[in-house]
Write the structure tokens for this entry.
Amino acid sequence: MTIAEVSKKYNISQDTLRYYERVGMIPPVTQTAGGIRDYTQQDCQWVELAKCMRGAGLPVEAMIEYVKLYQEGNHTLPDRLKLLTDQRERLLKQKESIEAMLERLNYKISWYEKAVKTGMLPWEDVEV
């Protein structure tokens, strides 16, 4: 696949794809004899992983470390596992925080829905 096709398929700009490769967030992409990027299925899997991990908040440095560990071979399996489980813990904490925010927002929305429905603010229960 060309960089344009990969860009369209994953909704990532071509500049971002080049950046991912340049900094090491994905391994070097397969190239034709003329030096044109020719994304293989494995290259695309790396793009998918990078997009997923970035979307989940994995720092660029951690993704670079993951790629480096992968390239070093199977003796790095424990390190890769730790990197991923650490990220899962961060995500679970974020999820808890988001759930608490949603609970608060739902309460506020309910309060305002009642006020809009009745046309009155319950001043004794004024909320910020």
Q: What stands out?
A: Residues 3-91 form a domain with the Multidrug-efflux Transporter Regulator; Chain: A; Domain 2 fold (CATH 1.10.1660.10). The mean pLDDT is 91.
